[in-house]
Amino acid sequence: MQAVDRKNGHIDLALNQPPVESEFDHYQLTHRALPEVNFGQIDLQTPFLGQVLAAPIFISSMTGGPARAERINAVLAEACRELNLAMGVGSQRIALETRHLSGMTRSVRGAIGQQPLMANFGAINLPDLASPSDLSRILDPLQADALILHLNPMQEVFQPRGDTDWAGILNCIAEVCAWCPVPVIVKEVGFGLDPVSAQRLLAAGVSFLDVAGRGGTRFDWIERELRGPGAEMPSQEAFDGWGYSTPEALKLCSPHIARSQLLASGGIRHGVDVAKALCLGASLCGVGGAILPAALESTEAAVGFLRQMILDLRTACYGSGVASSAHLNAEQLKVINPGGLG
Predict the structure, then answer these.
(1) In Å, how far are 13, 140, 210, 261, 333 from 146, measured between CA atoms?
(2) Are the C-beta atoms of 158 and 13 separated by less than 8 Å?
(3) How far apart are CA 300 and CA 308, in angstroms?
(4) What is the pLDDT of residues 97-115, one digit of tens each?
(5) CB-CB contact of 290 with 269 (8 Å)
(6) Which residues are within 8 A (CB) of 158 and not within 5 positions of it... i.e. 6 or more apart?
(7) Average pLDDT of the chain to the nearest whole number
(8) pLDDT (tens digit per residue) in 256-283
C-alpha cells in the first residue's frame, strides 16, 4: 500500500474507530458553591512559542500526505487564526521525500497567519536523513515556529514493513536539537510518554514533551484494519491496554517536568478534559480526533467546535473557583473511580 493511500486509510478509520473508554472520566473537578470569581474575567490566555494564545488549546497533529489531508489542515489552520490558537500539522515525511509534490505546503501558513505552527516528522525516520538540516525542507515552507518529532514504535510494529529499529534514535533527536533553529517538541502517538523516556529527551535538548496517551486515536487498531485478516502481527487482544492513558502519563511525568514544558494530547474531547489535564500538570492541551468530523465539514464547524471547548473550559474554571486556567492544579481534582485507573 502506497504511503498516500495509507494516510487516506488513517483518516477514514480514525472517523470510524470504536468508542474508547476515557480515563478522564475517572476524575471529577471539585465544585465551589461560592466561586468568588467573575465569569467574564476568567483568564485563559497561555504563553506558547513566544506568543500568547487565547486558551491553553492547540490542534494536535493528525494527518499529512494526501491532498485531502492538506484541506483538513487548511480548515484547522483557519480556525486557529480566527480564535488565536496554535496548531501542529500531520507527518511531513511524504512532503520531504517528494519535495512538496504532496503533503504540507506553505498554504497552511497562509491559512493560519501569524499563529504558532508546528512542523512534524517521525523520529524513526531521522537516520534516513543525510543531515538534520534536511528538515529545513519541511520547516521553511511552513515558516514553522517549532518542530514536532513523533514517537510511534507500537504503531510501527503493527504496520506492514514497519520501522522497528529504534536503536540510536535518541542520539538522532539530540543532533536535531543541536541543529534546529526552532524549539523541538517530542510527542507520542497514543500510547503515552513514560518518565524515563521523558527525562532522557529533555537531557537531549528537547524543549517540550507531549505525553499523547491512550484514549484517543488508536493506531495499532488502525494498522490492523489496514492490513486485514490473516496478516502476521502481534495479537490485538493481548496489547489492547498497552501503554499509558493521558491522565496516567501526566501523573507519571509531571513530577519530573516543568509545567511549562508539558503538553497533553490523546483523548481530549472537550473543555472539561482540558481542565482536568491542566490539573494533572499540563500547560497546554491538544485536540485531534474529536475535531476531525468538524474539520471535514467546514471552517465554521471547526470554529464552532473550538468555541464550545473554550466556553466549557471557562465554565470549568468558574465552577472550580479559579480566576485563571493557569491556577488549575491537583487541588481542584478528585478521583471518583480509583479502581478504574490503570
Answers:
(1) 28, 11, 13, 13, 31
(2) no
(3) 12
(4) 766 544 456 789 999 999 9
(5) yes
(6) 219, 220, 223, 224, 227, 233, 234
(7) 88
(8) 999 999 999 999 999 999 999 999 999 9
**C-alpha cell of residue 173:** 533527536
Neighbours of 305 (CB within 10 A): 20
Q: What are residue 148's DSSP bridge partners?
A: 120, 185
| Residue tagged 477514514 (cell numbers) | 12
pLDDT tens digits for range 64-76: 545 667 788 899 9
Strand intervals (E) in 161-255:
184-188, 208-210
Task: Say if residues 300 and 78 touch (Cβ distance below 8 Å).
Answer: no
Cα–Cα distance measured from residue 158 to residue 179, given in angstroms and rounded to the nearest whole number: 32
Structural domains of the chain ordered from first start = 3-340 (3.20.20.70)
Question: Measuring CA to CA, how many Å separate 19 from each of 16, 218, 219, 319?
Answer: 9, 10, 14, 28
Burial of 326 (0-12, 13-18, 19+ CB in 10 A): middle
Beta strands in the chain (DSSP E): 27-29, 46-48, 51-53, 57-59, 86-88, 117-122, 146-151, 184-188, 208-210, 262-265, 284-287, 333-335
Which residues is 118 bridged to in the sheet?
88, 146
Cβ-based neighbour number of residue 47 at 10 Å:
13
**Chain centroid to CA 263: how far?**
8
